[in-house]
Design a protein that fits this description.
The complex is a heterodimer of chains A (about 260) and B (about 750). In chain A, strands 2-1-3-4-11-10-9-6-7 form a 9-stranded mixed β-sheet, sandwiched between helices. In chain A, strands 5-8 form a two-stranded antiparallel sheet. Helices cover about 25% and strands about 25% of the residues of chain A. Chain A is an alpha/beta fold and about 260 residues long. In chain A, helix 2 links the parallel strand 1 and strand 2. Chain A contains 6 helices and 11 strands. Chain A has one domain: 3-Layer(aba) Sandwich (Rossmann fold), CATH 3.40.50.880. Chain B is of the alpha+beta class and about 750 residues long. Helices cover about 35% and strands about 25% of the residues of chain B. Chain B is built from 26 helices and 28 strands. In chain B, the strands form 5 sheets. Chain B has a 7-stranded mixed β-sheet with strand order 8-10-7-11-9-12-13. Chain B has a 7-stranded mixed β-sheet with strand order 23-25-22-26-24-27-28, with helices on both faces. Chain B has a 6-stranded mixed β-sheet with strand order 1-2-3-6-4-5. In chain B, helix 7 packs parallel to helix 10 and helix 19 packs parallel to helix 22. The two termini of chain B are about 50 Å apart. Classes of the chains: A alpha/beta (about 260), B alpha+beta (about 750). Chains A and B meet through helix 2 and strand 6 of A and helix 8 and helix 10 of B.
Chain lengths: ~260, ~750
Amino acid sequence: MSPETRAVQAAVFSTQHSGLVTQYAMRWGVIIFPGSCDDQDVFDSLKVDLRQTVKFLWHKDELAGNYDCIVLPGGFSYGDYLRCGAMARFSPIMQGVVKFARSGGLVLGICNGFQILCESGLLPGALVRNAGLQFVCQQVHLRVEETDTPFTGAVKKGQVLKMPVKHGEGCYYADPQTLEGLHRNRQILLRYVDVKGRATTAANPNGSLENIAGICNKKRNVFGLMPHPEVACSRLLGSEDGAQIFHSIAAARTDRAKLHG
Amino acid sequence: MAKVQAKNFPQPAVTPELVASHGITPDEYQKIMKALGREPNYTELGVFSVMWSEHCSYKSSRSYLKNLPTEGPHVLQGPGENAGIVDIGGGLAVAFKMESHNHPSFIEPYQGAATGVGGILRDIFTMGARPIASLNSLRFGSIAHPRTRYLLSGVVAGIGGYGNCIGVPTVGGECFFDECYNANILVNAFNLGIVKKRQIFTGIAKGVDNPVMYVGSKTGRDGIHGATMASEAFSEEKEQRRPTVQVGDPFTEKLLLEACLELMETDYIVGIQDMGAAGLTSSSSEMAGRGGCGIELDLSRVPLREAGMTPYEILLSESQERMLLVARRGSEEAIKKIFDKWDLDAVVIGRVTDDQQFCALWDGEEVARIPIGALTKEAPVYRRPAARPADQDQLQQLDLATVKEPKDLAAAFKQLLGSPNIASKEWIFRQYDHFVRTNTVVAPGADAAVIRVKGTQKGLALTVDGNGRYCYLDPYVGGVLAVAEAARNLACVGARPIGLTDCLNFGSPENPEVMWQFGQVIQGMRDACVAFDIPVVSGNVSFYNETDGTPIYPTPTIGMVGLLDKVQRIVTPWFKSSGDVVVLLGRTREELGGSEYLKWVHGLTRGTPPWIDLKMEQAVQNCCREAIEEQLLSSAHDVSDGGLAVTLAECCIGGPEKPLGVRIERREMIRGDALLFSESQSRIVVSLKEDNVGRLNDLAARHGVPAQVIGIVGGTRFVIQPLLQLPVEELKTIWSTGLTARLK
């Protein structure tokens, strides 16, 4: 997609808010782990707000069928009584998800999904207990740091998005070497910022290293973030900024479909 | 697992001491003998003790509760089931209820509060409803009391820990501090679920030989005699009761919730009930009681968590995350398959019989046989003595001439704004997930929370309210005001009340003064409900909230649900734009009795609570609601604790956006502190575009409601001429940090 088309699409999207403008019928799969809480929310936002084709996938099944993007939703998989996501990575479907990701498929992990992706080794680093030691539920502002990814392609670099976080273990941590790699490969996609876009300590809800809210893998096809785009897809709920993440994904897939004719 | 053989499990002899230690009076023991025609054995004694406990039998309150209005054209299920249900049109209904978990939360705050949430959620999904919104009403002792911080932190973490993990949003609530709760905190949990009208389930056992199935967690020794504990006052040694508090497992409950809702899509269920207080005993006997049949349980088939449990312990365990269901014969395997998918136990443990007996077997031997009626509808009912407290008159005396008006009203105002009861509760609700299920239109912090109903244009407004101080000073008026304020909160977002649920928290019913308070509160609630035409569809009574003979203030908390036809039209309490005109609906009087100001600034809990005219209250609410429907308003906020000054400050600083200033001019011929802090009822502060003022005035005139333009939104200062003039940013800081600063 040319920058012009992208801008037009974004404009149409931001004024109409009535579904994604895409010629390509995206196929989304949303995994249900035992203890997933936001599975229905992701499903509803994609299906109702964004008019997408969505299917639930059960964690005990194999990953079968054709999907353009697999979503690991938020929640408390297996109660998160152990380390968050540490059990879910052993769910039968995860083998298929790893294979899907290795072959270039798009994988999006939100909150607990992000934690599972880190535990599975699909994303580097870890999410540990919030610095404040309490569960945090609030609206946050996020600065989009990189746009050459399928997850942020429809957003402007430096643009500030508003959506909520709600987690007890969302403090992103990585050792210096890993962090350096994230910088070198421009894998940090979202940072917590204030309303003016400054990455201050006060704007960081959980003590994440460098205010990191979301990262992708080196190949840029796996994305994990702690904030919840699915809660921010409707004006009634206070923000539509989350839809821009889903919009980016659909747009990227449309491009690829065109490319492959 | 090693089983206890019937012949060798200990059945202590039933002695008068044993009877007394089960909380059964000699009179009640005679009744038991009459019902059985013989002496009960140890197991049966345990069963009677929990079923006849105040908590399960409502023996002191039942004769009063029947005076509450419970019917209405939209009520599908009134009190007596796990939750009440009200029709909201379009084939949908809402199930809701509030329940107390006071005693356990004082003993073990995290688990006590967590299992309170777990219990109320099961009450909702057992009706076939998907829980979509929780609220809670909390009362703690003085913020300065050394235990308060520990209890508050534990309770809030427990509510969040359970609710967040199971994926049900906590969208609102209230929290209040007063010395009267120092030794008896209140934790009242509310939940609402949404259900298709044709898929409502009830707790009924029917059909002889239908299997009785046990689903969910295994049974352990936790919570044995929890119901009995909640039916006694605290004394010094009650902390040793920690083992009677249950331990929650929200993950298992999440699985149970999903499995049950999946099962409810089939036609395999005859009846289903959660195992709450008094566990297996109450669920089975109540289901049989409703169906007019008998029930036979083989306790040796109950899945156990620990070895060596006796029939007595299995019957009385309050282990969490368990449900009992009566299935259609032949559907057992299909049901097991669904629970297998969710990795949960589903075991046939008994059958429905036709002999109207509660019968428990252990390895083929009968260990209990009791007529169902004796455990349910024939349980004792008491009309306990009631007496107006001797000091009530004295308490109500308040000569304002002796209450000196502060020279520095600004200092008094700031003091009040930062007081724990008025200050922002963000520290509490940011620990709760209030977004999950993507329905939350108005999050915690407003007069009422608002959630959308997916697939429709509709919305639901939810609030919990109650003022124990008002009820202490005048329990009748306090009862009226609790209902009135809840309804006013709903009117402020534009919703019409459709039903209420309550938690009635009181001291010991054996104290005639407490019983008098109880009767008066119920009468007040009744009169308000009748006036507003709001049915009471569910609720719970918690007595014995007292320690060493000192009861809490009588504290009814009201959970009220309102319907919005068009959820997009709601307004929130906060000022929106500079230039908007501020109008006060209603009238301010010199009413400082029982006010937050009198308590916090002058240290007085005296006088009579504010006066209320129910007709005027309704007129004000209708006027506000219609103004919202006609989209005249930018904001609407109920005037309550802290009076007009605090309300206006909240309008300026309480919202999610940058604070806005306001300039108010008042010329009332009353004392300055009364003008600012009087808690006169039937008042709402609204703001609107200047162009709409005429239409609002017409509307107010039509309803006979006083409506006065009192000021204008804008600037960076909070001005009430000629009394106050302060920067809004300073107020925001005081209000935002008032609670947290005291928790450090």
